[in-house]
Amino acid sequence: MTETRRQHDLSVTETVEASSVAAGITPGLPPDDPLHAGGETRSQWRDVWRQFRSHRGAMVALVLFVSTILFVLVGPYLWTIDPTYVDIRARNSGFSVAHPLGTDQLGRDMLARLMAGGRVSIAVGLTAMIIAITLGSLIGLVSGYFRRMDAPLMRLTELFLALPLLPLLLLMVTLFREPLSQSFGPAMGTFILIVSAIGATSWMQAARIVRGDVLGLKEREFILAAKSIGTPAHRMILRHVLPNVLSPIMVAATLGIATAIITESALSFLGLGFPPDFPTWGRLLYDAVDQMVMYPWRVILPGLFISLTVLCVNYIGDGLRDAMDPRIRGR
Amino acid sequence: MKKALVSALALMMASPAVAERGSDGELRVLYWQAASVLNPYLSTGAKDVDPASMVLEPLALVGNDGALIPVLAAEIPSIENGGISEDFTTVTWRLKPGVTWSDGTPLTAADVAFTADYCMAPGFGCAVLAEFEGIKTVEAVDDRTVRIHYGAPKYPPLQAFVGGRTPILQKAQFEPCLGEAGASCTRQNFGPIGTGPFRVTSFEPGNVSTFEANPHYRDPAKPAFATVTIKGGGDAMAAARAVLETGEFDFAWNLQLAPDIVAPMEAAGKGKLVGSFGSMVERIELNQTDPSPALGKERSTLAHPHPFLTDPAVRRALSMAIDRPILAELAYGPAGKPTCTIVPVPLDFTSGRDDCLKQDIQGANRLLDEAGWLPGPDGVRQKDGVPLRLVFQTTVNAVRQDVQSLVKQWWSEIGVATDLKTIDGTVFFGGDAGNPDSRARFLADAQMFTDAFYLPDPASFLEEFVCSRVPNDENQWQGNNSVRFCDPDFDARMAALNQTGAARERHRIAKEMTDMLTADGHVVLPLIHRGMIGAHANSLAGILPNGWEGSLWNIADWSRAE
């Protein structure tokens, strides 16, 4: 009895060690009674978080991003100067106690403007990104998974890629600015307009990437296996395909935020964006370009915030991608 | 006429010592908006008219003081010399003797008559047709005499062929371009033969054009420069740098930049700024009709008067709240002076009212209180449920956006809430009937832009404010009366002005009409009398500001100083 028992134990250890080297998992077989095995339970997201924490760049980026968001959300409650208040006597002032980051050419407080501008810019970036990614992934998934939808949807994508962006935006603004300002007020109306305009014109890259990945995935064995046991299409997509294409979507999303913030500033510059008394980072940057030589800080500060946000979001996306890929996790 | 003599003398005195033609080499000029055509009858933009003025010349130019200077004409027609008939129905011009085109052929009265036919030809779409309004025929009496026949008495009679926008074209060259063929005559429109100091050597629309001295120019000592290169493109900022900081170019045009940006550049000592003040006035128009979106197709039409901007007290208060000197100082610097009139020049026509120059927030508040507009719970004044809340639109331009923010703040101090809106310049000034954001459509309560007029007599400019010029659905929203001012009293005075010949009487009527719009009526709020700011290298001499003509109007007199 003892001999057989020892033999069995040895063989188990061998198997575990052999397999664990290749698979990169913790040594140890699943317990015989998993429900009462004890110890802490491990969910997928906890694993993702643990992996994410080990990515130093991503952690720094996350801290910076959260502090930027706190700066723009909580800041205005602590620093209560109205960002649009014109104080001609204090114009062009440098860093001082009354205006820690100086004032612009009309004497408006830069700190307050950066906070107010950040709110808008980050909100535009995030919302436009969500719209673009949702639309892009949906179209990519559908056209990659259903063969019949592939050709028409990809032609649609190409059509959108070929459309000149600026005339299209001009048209959208001309058609919808008035009705939207009527129903939501000028600021909210413009916000909805800009966010949907940017979202509707930047989903194509995501759609193409997702479609390509889905096409590759469809040929894999586990999909075949799932298909053979009769998994319906919607569950197939949600359970098996979507989680496996999350990492390219994440990357596309982080890049999308950056593009959205920059597109918004270009639109404001052309007069198609927010009203001029509505500061955004992009507008602050453009307004200051003329006085760049004399007041470099007015360009540097909003530029710094834009680049910092974009860089942070990119790093977070990088970390998330690593953390969510089961093949990399644990290494 | 004494005035004309004085300005001609001034011109002669300002010209530098006699030089030789072509002795000063190349002149490099930067127009940050590039010319697209060299024919002013196709485009009235300064970017096109200015380069063309080096080649094509009119019969007379308007001097800086508003007096006429003869160019191709031997003298300015007047009643005294018989050039203008007693009943103001004909004008007779005598041409200078011995003027030739740059191809050597002589200039004749037939060329002048042809130019009028060219512009008035049906199907052509002449850009300056308004200047030819009322002309029945133009007749070449003999080689050097041309007579313009008006159908009815015409005031002022000297209009066509005065100023660089209506120059004389060569009949032999443009004869195939009559009527509908006009716009497609590329060779002619890109390389007109003229009588001016230079002739075209190459022209690339939207890019570079080069000119050389005209060997047949009537003054053998002029022009001093052998060639001129006009480069287009870039923006005002880059243009200012190219002249004032790097010295790559000798002259740059139209630098509307905030004063604290150009002042340090000028301090570098490579060049100077010149400002010429014409009739350009930056103004805010207060819509007299209701732009409320609830009205659908009838928005901004005379059928619905504005809910509160028709109240004179509100308009006056809005004007009183604005600090014009501060605006001029902050946003325009040397390029603008505060003003209270939309007819700032010539001085004979200026009413001289300057009571608007002093900001009076308290007075404006009192005025609104007395008129029954009382502050509501949110600080916005209201009466009978109508809040003083307006949409204020203008074009995209850093200086204008600064002014918008300042005005918004001042208006908020008298309890008027303002929503700002900006529109791309080409859209705002676009003439398309379906364009909801154009100046003429005016779907806002207030709008700010610059307007100007080109002849020293403002009659045709004031005529823009008569009732029949209000843009509406029937005229495809094309009228010039964008403020939608409609007052029978004003129209009656306009009719009187159009039948008055006596100068003094004309001045009086025009002043009254201007005041009805501005100092008394406050329908149009003048802000800044704007100058055209150019920059030139220190080595360039002979530049004279002239607010009525293009920046290159006296380029024949320019020379290179030591």
UniProtKB/TrEMBL annotation, chain A:
TM helices/strands, residue ranges: 59-79, 120-146, 158-176, 188-210, 245-274, 294-317
Keywords, comma-separated and alphabetical: Cell membrane, Membrane, Transmembrane, Transmembrane helix, Transport
Domain ABC transmembrane type-1: from-to ranges: 118-317
Gene3D superfamilies associated with the record: MetI-like
Bilayer disposition of the protein: Multi-pass membrane protein
Compartment list: Cell membrane
Predominant subcellular localization, coarse grouping: membrane
Highest taxon, organism lineage: Bacteria
Family label: Belongs to the binding-protein-dependent transport system permease family.
Protein name per its UniProtKB record: ABC transporter permease
